[in-house]
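Throughout our pipeline, every protein is held as a single compact record rather than as scattered files. The record that follows is passed on verbatim for readers who wish to inspect the format.
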Amino acid sequence: MGMRGRIALAISLVVALTVVVFGFAVHATCGVVHAQQAHARDQQNGLLTSALQKYRRDGTLAPGARLDDSALPEPLADAAWKEGTATFVSGGSAPQVWAAARVDGKVLSLSASYAPQGDPLQSALDRALVPVGAMTAALLAVAGWFTAYGLSRRLRLDAVPARRIAAGTPPDPRPVADGGRAETAEPPERHPATPLATRAAVDRELTAGMAHELRTPVTGLVAAAELLPHPRAVEMVRDRAQAMRSLVEALLEISRLDAGQEQARCEPVDLASLVRDTVSRVARESGAGEAAAASVSVVGEGRIVETDAGRVVRVLEILLHNAARHGASPIEVTLRGSSIAVRDHGPGFPRELLDHGPRRFRTGAPDRGTGHGLGLTIAVGQAEVLGARLRFHNPSDGGAAAVFELPETRTCS
């Protein structure tokens, strides 16, 4: 199977696996069995109340009621003695629903057979997921085939000079026809670093191209989620699709940073006001679970700097979210001159990050959460666009600290 077929097959398999996982998750979380059990328990509890009233009124047992029944499940008997009344659903080949209560030093109990039935809504949802999943997988397989055609064509063209370089033969100086694409139409230079730079440029375009191609089906998946009949299914599919969309947007931002397409625009910025406003907004948007405990302190006088306010906010947002997600409160933001420090009191940065810096899709340790390592990579890239410096270290008294040092002089256009 050629590269086009492999890429298309990989895309379709990933989509099919995602649909299967969503289907099992929706099926498992619909809660039909629990709802039926709760309904059966309530019914049996109502019958038990009537039986108790009859027994206390005239001392007789209602139909089906028993005193100190020998078949009474032991957990139910213990619960009835401790709590006064209790319900229980027994398993086995003939499940039963029980209700029992303590009365006059004895246990009055009722039982009935319990046979859970399928839920029509859940059955309809299961039937709807199959055609929707099959249609989505088929459409994305076709889209993947055409996407893979363009990607594999460029890779095949690049493989010719790559094989010559690997064999120690100088690359062919003649341009390679590629429909006018600049990175493959230009002849390779004699400098040994040029093939590596060309390859890096191709990799950047490949990442950007894949992110652009994935954006459309992910957007369609978000819209398709609204067509599912069950609100819980809509919520689950939408959350996962939103996560995929956030990942694609992060990849696009990284590809622009790698390609040098980002340029900073300077304007006078009051750093103290900018930092306070950003911390407050992140706390409001994130709620109590993230960045809500961040405190801001300004050392010395506030400073007006010439910089790109939007990129400063972007870096600060990433540092706040990272501290809240992987660290622990309290989170402290300290502004000293043109330097912004964000510190948490969690386990600290992993050693790999301190030694080599942030790396995409590398979080440094398996227990660092569910991130992709893209946030801090973007923060470092945005800092470089500003001509700033972003340093990471673990203070001696615990926690993790990221120091964002803006340049003293104007470095943007």
